Structures
1.
Amino acid sequence: MKKNAVLPLALAGIASLTLASTASAHDIPDRYGYLGGHVSQYWFEKNEMGPNGYDEVTLPGLQAGLRFHPNWSFQAWWERNQAHTRQTGDKSYISNLLGSVRYHFNDTSVLGFEPYAGIAAGQLRFDHGRSAKDDTETVAGFEFGAQARIARHFILDVGARPVWTEWNDRIEGEIYAGLNIVFGATSKPVAPVEPAVLDDDNDGVPNELDQCPNTPAGVAVDEKGCPLDSDGDGVPDYLDRCPDTPAGALVDEHGCQQYLEQDIRETLYVEFELDKAEIRQEFIGELNTLADWMKKYPNAQVTLEGHTDSTGRVAYNQTLSERRAESVKNTLVSSFNVDPSRITTSGRGPSQPIADNKTAEGRAQNRRVEVVIKATKREALFENN
C-alpha cells in the first residue's frame, strides 16, 4: 500500500477506539437484516490523478445488508457527494457503489465491539457535468471494522477500507461510520451458566457431599468422598499393608491382623438348670461377646470346658458337663456362624467348683462353661514389621 493510503487506516483506528469508549454495547444477534446510513472520508492518490486531481471527499450514503450466519454477512453500499479539483476548482460528483462480504468474529469483544474483516468490490464514478465525459472505474479492496449494538434495534458500525482502483493502478482508501436499523433478529439461546462446583481435595466428590474433605491427592474414594477400604478393617486401602484381613479381625494402624500374645481364660456365665444342658435364652448375650472375640482373632482356637455342681453321681456329671460344652459350641456355630473347626470341647464334671455346693446359689454358679482362647504364633506378614 502506498504511503498516502496509511492515513485513512490510522484515522479509522482512532475513530473506532473513540466510539468504543462511549458506546453501550449489547450482544449482536446471530442473524438479522438491516438498513442504515453512513458517512465516510475518502482519500485519493493525488500523485496518480495528476496535478488537477482530487485530495479527499466526504461521502454520505446508504447501506443495506443481511447477516445470514453467525460469522458471515453481505452488504450493499452506496455513497455520493460533490468534490472540486485542487487547482481549477472544477466541480464533479463522486459516487461509490460497492458490495462486500464480511467475516464476523462473533465470539470476540474489543472494548465492547465485535470485530470483522471482509472483501469489497464495485465502481467509483466521476460525474463531471455537461462540460466533460463521465468516468467510471472498477475498485476492489479489504474492509476492517467493528460493530456494537447500542440499542435494541440499532447497531453502530465503524471501520476502514483500503482499495485498489483501476485507473493508473492507484491505492486509495476511506474510513467510515454507519448506523444500521436491525430487523428480523434471531439469536441462538445461550445455555445457562452452571454454578461452579467446589471440590477442595479434587477427589471428584463436591464439598457439600464430601464426608472426608481432606483426602490425599490421587487416592480412590467412594461416593461419600472417603478413601476405599476394601477389607472393611477401618484402615483405607492406600495405607493398608494387609489388604485381605478377615472381616471383623482386630488390626493395627497398618491394617494388619493382631494376634493374642497369651491365652485368655474367661468364665462364660451361661448357667444351666439342674440336670439340663440347654442354654437359657437370657444368656445368649454372653455368647455374642465370645463370638466377637473370635472374629477379632480369627486364627485363635477356643476350648470350651463344661462344669457341673456336685449333685448326683460323678460319672453322670462328667457326661452332663460334656453335653453343656457341646451345647455352647452348637449355638456359636448355628447362631453366630463360627467355624466349628476352631472350637474344642471338654467336660470337667464337678471337679472344679467356683462356689460352695452346699447352697443353691453356689450350685447354680458351678453349672457353667469356662472359655479358654488360645494364643497363636504371630506370622511374619512383611519384613521389618
2.
Amino acid sequence: MYKTSLVKIPKPEFIVFYNGPGETPEKWKLWLSDAFIGLEPGEKVPLDLIVTVYNINPGHNEGMLEKCEELSGYSIFVDKVREYKKTISDKDIAFRQAINDCIEHNILREFLKLHATEVLQMLLTEWNTEEALAFEREEGWKEGREEGEKKKALETAKNLLALGVSLDTVAKAVGLDMETVKSLAQ
C-alpha cells in the first residue's frame, strides 16, 4: 500500500467456453473493441479486452476436456440434451431423459443428483426463451414483408398515376383503398 514502485500482478486471461450449435473452430479470439461504436479502422483504444474462446462441443478440444472432468461432463450433458430434444418432442421428458442418462452413465452424477430440479427448470426456461425469440424473429420478418409489399404497392400506384391511369383502376390493380390512392394522386 505504501510502495512507490510498480507492484507486479499475474497476467489476466479471459476465457469463454463455447458449446453452441453453430460450427466453429477449436479456438478463436474475440476483441471487445469490435463492439465499439465510432471506432475508425486500425484505431487503437486505451483499453481493450481479448477473450480466447474454446469450442467444447464433442470432438473439439478433447485434450482440454480430458483434463477437466466437470467441463467434459458439461459438454457431454449439453450434447445429450440436444440429442434427446431432437428425438422427443416433449421438452420436459427430453430434458429429464438427458439428466437421467447422464446420472446413469456417471456424467456429472453427483451434481445432477443434487440439482436435477434446478437444471431442469433452467433448461426449460432457456429453451422457452429461444423459442420465444425465434417466434419474435418470424413475426418481425412477416411484418417486414408486409411493410415491403405495402411500400411496393404505393410505389406502383404512384407510377400508374403518373402514367394517367384512373384512380379506380390503380386501386384495383395494386390492392389499395380508394382513400390512399386519392391522397397519392394529390
3.
Amino acid sequence: MLTFDSLKISEELLKNLNSLGFKKMTSIQAKTIPLLLDKSDLIAQAKTGSGKTIAFTIPLVEKLEVKRFTIQSMVICPTRELANQVAQEIKKVCRHIHNVKVLTLCGGVPYKPQVASLRHKAHIIVATPGRVLKHISENNIQLENINYLVLDEADKMLDMGFYEDVISIFKALPKSKQTALFSATYEDNIKNLADNILHKNIFIEDDDVHKKQKINQIFYKVNEASKTALIPSIISSSKANSVLIFCNRKVTCEHLADDIFDLGFDCVVLNSDLDQKQRDETLVLFSNKSYPIMIATDVASRGLNIDNIDLVINYDVAKDEKVHTHRIGRTARAQNIGVAVTLYDEQSIHIVEDIKEIYDDIEFKDIQSLKDDLSFNLQAKYRTLYINGGKKQKLRAGDIVGALINQAGLKSEDIADIDIFTFHSYVAVKKEFELQALKELNRNKIKGKKYQVYKR
C-alpha cells in the first residue's frame, strides 16, 4: 500500500495527517489524490467507507491560499448530515493552518445567520444543493474565485431529485474550475450528469466496488406482530454492542423505541422531524456509545460517518435493493466485519427477490434457529455530558480533558469522544464517573470560565 509521504504535499500537511493516524492510503486515495493534485477533472466510483472524503480533501487543503480570504473550494453533498461530517473532516485536515474558515450551508437550519456568515467571507463552502442555490439566486455568495468543486455522493443527489439544481450550481461557477465527482454507482443518470458538466475527465474505479463487503446477511421470514419480540435475540446472538435499526416510517420508529425501552434497552431515534441540533445530538450519543441502539428512517442510510456499527437490523424491508445496499453499508466499515439482519413477510417477498439478485450469499434462516444468549447484556459503556459552550467561546477539546483530569479526578482512559459545536459541546465519560464529572465541572471553571453542564 502507498503511504501519504509518497504524495507531493507540504511537510506541514503530512505531519498533520500522521497526527490524525493517516499513514497508508486506501485504494481510492492512491488512485485519485495524485490526479487531483495535478488539477485533473475526474469521476470516481467508490463505496461509502472507502476513504473518499480524505481523497478530495487533501488536494483542497494543499491548494488553499489562506491569505486570500475568499471562497476557493465548494463541496456539494446530498444531505446535511453528510455535509456536516465532511466539514468536520476538512477542518481536521487543515487544522495545521491558522484562520481557515469552513462554512456549512444546509437547509433545515436558520437562513439569515448563513447570510451574515457569507458577508464575513470564508475559504471553503460545504453545502447541500437547494440551500446553496438559494444563496446564489439571492446574490449572497461570491463565486468568482472558486477553483475546485466536489460533488460527493452524486448518485444519492440524483436519487433525491437534485439534477437540475446541480446543473444550475455548476453553470454559476467559474468555467476554469477543477471538478471531482464521487459516486457509489456509475449508472446512466451519473453518466448523463458527467456528460453535461465534464468534458475532459478521467474515470477512476475503486477496486473495492466489485468486492463484497464483509457483511454476513441473514433473512428471517416473520409475522409483523412478532418482529419486536425478536430484537433481543437478534442482538444477543450477534454479540452486538452497537446496533442500527431501520424502519420505513417515522411513526414505526417511535413505537419501536417505546417497545425497545420497555424491553430494557437504551435507544435514540433519528428521523426527519428533528431539527439540526437534535440530529447532531442524536448522532453524537450513538456514535460515542452512550446509547447502543439507534432507530432510524432512511434519512440515516447515507452520509453517516460512524464506524464500529456491529449490527444493522432491517425491521422493515427497504423499498428497493439500492436502499437496502445503502442501509447494510453502515456496518462492515473500515475493513471490519458486520452483520445485517432483515425481517420480511409475505408482502415484501418481491423486494427480497430483487435483493437476492444482487447478493448470492444471503442466509435464509428459520426464526426457530435464533437463540437468545441470556448471558449477553447490551449496556452503554459511556455517558455523555452537555456543556453550554463551544467554538464561539474558544472552548477546545484539550480544555475539557484538562478540567476532567485536574478537577474531576478522571484519567485519560476514562474520557472518550469530545464533540464541539458552535455554541455547545459534548464529552463522553465512562458511566461510573458520570455523576462525579458532572458535579465537578459544574462546581469549577473550564479554561477560567464557568459553564453549565448537564446529563444527556
